[in-house]
Amino acid sequence: MNYLNGSVSAGSKHLSPLVFPLFVFFLLSVLLLSTSYSPALHAQELTIDSAINKAGRQRMLTQRILKSYLLIGQNVDADSAQRQLDQSIALFEQQLDELDEFTTNRAVKKSLERVEGQWQTFRQRVIEKPNAKMALSIINEGDELLVSCEKVVKNLEKMSNSTKGNVINVSGRQRMLSQRIGMLYAAHSWGVDNRAVSKNLDIAIKEYDEALLFLQVTPINTKKINTSLTKVASKWEFSRSGFSQMDNERYVPFIIQVTTESMLKKMNKITALYEGLNTEEAVANR
């Protein structure tokens, strides 16, 4: 995993997005056919598989919070971004409490304590009025929190000691990458240290590609999971065309916001399918 270093470039500029007909068609289709990702805020009794899923969702929320912060700062769909920010903060805090109550495992507890300490500082910074000059510093803080959340998932995966636990981790990480891609794009469009942002955006896209290929050949997949992954791969290939315009400084942050929301929603459903999977039945239903 790679993280941003350096400082915000001086004189960050606002670039007028150029929306091509193909993107307009896609945007309208997504808006009509899907709704924003908004998981219910209710407690549930955790199993090891659901704990891995939930801890993995915490990784995603670090990037979703950052993305919302950056979109608010650019006044891109600001009302929706503010709702996402508020919902993500509330969900992160609820899930942190639920994970803390789940186990007495020393490694998990220790990693959760680190997350808790970092979260308090990060939370305070992202609820302040967005500031382009402070954006890179906040992104770096969010990435440090992401590393700590990743450690929680890895420790839970070790507890699971199963192929299923590993696959839930990888599938859940795709949710994080969808939001990381959207966040880095939003940072780029706001003029935040473009060189570092561009490099990390390329890395995130590459990691998403590699994990999607891994999931598509995973032996425990059911027919339903395989069908869902095929649809994700098709949508993802189409969505990638939006990043090609960055070289010409043509930014469409609202369009990318919509596409990454769609990616998140689809991968969240697939991760839930993996969580509920009976691995013995999966082999029979392939």
Description:
The protein has about 290 residues and is mainly alpha-helical. The chain has one domain. Helices cover about 75% and strands about 0% of the residues. It is built from ten helices and no strands. It has helices at about 20-35, 50-75, 80-100, 105-125, 130-160, 165-190, 195-215, 225-240, 255-275, 280-285. Helix 1 crosses helix 9 and helix 6 runs antiparallel to helix 7 (about 195-215). The protein is globular, with a radius of gyration of 18 Å. The relative contact order is 0.17. Residues about 1-35 and about 280-285 have low confidence and may be disordered.
Keywords:
286 residues, disordered C terminus, mainly alpha
Q: Report the radius of gyration as a whole number of Å.
A: 18 Å
Total domain modules: 1
Report the uncertain regions.
1-35, 282-286
The proportion of residues in beta strands is under 5%
SSE pattern, N- to C-terminal: HHHHHHHHHH
Largest sheet composition: none
Summarize the helices and strands and which ones pair or pack.
Elements: H1 21-33, H2 48-74, H3 78-102, H4 106-126, H5 132-160, H6 163-189, H7 194-216, H8 223-239, H9 253-275, H10 279-284
Helix pairs in contact: 1-9, 2-3, 2-5, 2-6, 2-9, 3-4, 4-5, 5-6, 6-7, 6-9, 8-9
Structure summary:
The chain has 286 residues and is an all-alpha fold. The protein is 74% helix and 0% strand.
